[in-house]
Amino acid sequence: MPDLHVLVLAAGKGTRFKSRFPKVLHRVAGRSMIDRVVATASRLQPSSITLVVGHEADAIKPAVTGYASLGFVVQEPQLGTGHALLCAETAFKGRTGTLLLLSGDVPLLSAETLETLLKAHRSTGAVATVLVALFVNPDGYGRIVRSGSTIAQIVEDRDATLAERQIREVNSGIYAFEIAGLFEAVHSIATDNAQREYYLPDLVAIYRRQGLGVESVDVSDPNEVRGINNRVELASVSALVRQRKNTALMAAGVTIEDPATTYVDDDVTVGPDTVIHPGVSLEQGTIIGAECEIHSGTRIVGSRVGDRSVVFNHCVISSSTIAEDASIGPFAHFRYDVSIAAAAKVGNFVELKKTALGPRSKAMHLSYLGDATIGSDVNIGAGTITCNYDGTSKHPTTIASGAFIGSDSQLIAPVTVGEDAYIGTGTLVRENVPPGALAISAGKQRNIEGWVEERRKRRGAGRAEE
Fold first, then answer.
1. Got the DSSP string for 36-61?
2. Which domains, and CATH codes, for the chain?
3. Catalytic annotation on 365?
């Protein structure tokens, strides 16, 4: 099979976005456009992938790290799609085979559609094959002008006549080219158009004049080739991605009570018989087990939730692991490598950071637990704080299994509370507590009889003097 090389056009400024960031870095359902395009190209296992970058080029490169055989060329200034291809000429010197050209702002294209395009291109022996689609509203897209059944030319929307604007068959901007002779043809593109730019679609007419074969392939789902040129289109395409994901989850046995308000990234996994309430966001590869329940207002990012666990309303969970049969929230906040063991419970307004909470342990009310390792069957009373930061460094707190931490206690790290130890209510713990010991720091309560009456008298005397 001939070599396959992929070229992705990603140099545009995206002026209609009115953003200082490159258009292709804007996210579709949680994932940047350019990352989606490069990931799809990688599934084809090409010999190389080259990105044409321009505006904020240094910002684009980190967004596509981790892909094999990835290179970059710079288009400066940006003088059209034909000029973008010319800027890549040096990168393709000495290469042979097929060049698949993609657009960085067309993120929904599937690898299956590209494989169909390549198969047709190779089987017909064409020098160029265009992916085309039928749009109900073709405004903004180049029109496919045919002579009989063959493509005669592609006319850009701005240059189309009134009759040509009635054509509903459009150019997707996705092509398969034979590398041999390609750049010689590109050099003959002129700029006699409304934009005074080098239009890549002009290659079709150039090849036709040379008597060379140009073919087309219809895309089965026109949504795959929808380009994104502004934030309205970005929102529309993102909604389409989320709709597809929610539909797939429901078909697999997940209950989504309100798909319109449920945002699930396409790399998220959810087990059967899980119930997702309205207003939930599941992001960045999150894995939710079977028979879970995720209540409204919750956002879970890059985390794992075990089978039969319940996350109540308005929790924020990031980079954390929750084992099976756990109960979380409402209004809990997990961040930075939190680990919740089986059957543990975390209640309302509890924040955990870099903390491991052991099996059947619970922290039910108004606590902050940071940089802590907590054993099994531990009770954390309301208002408990692990004071982990001394102004310079973070320090660990260790609470062994079976310990009981009374309400309104402060544990000054680094400190260890031994197995089955008790911390009295309101205790400030500065030293390690031995196993089985009771730690208290508050003095004996002293009641001052008659204090309220004396205070009233003083206040009354003060007003009389005024």
1. HHHHHHHTT--SEEEEEE-TTHHHHG
2. 4-225 (3.90.550.10), 231-439 (2.160.10.10)
3. yes
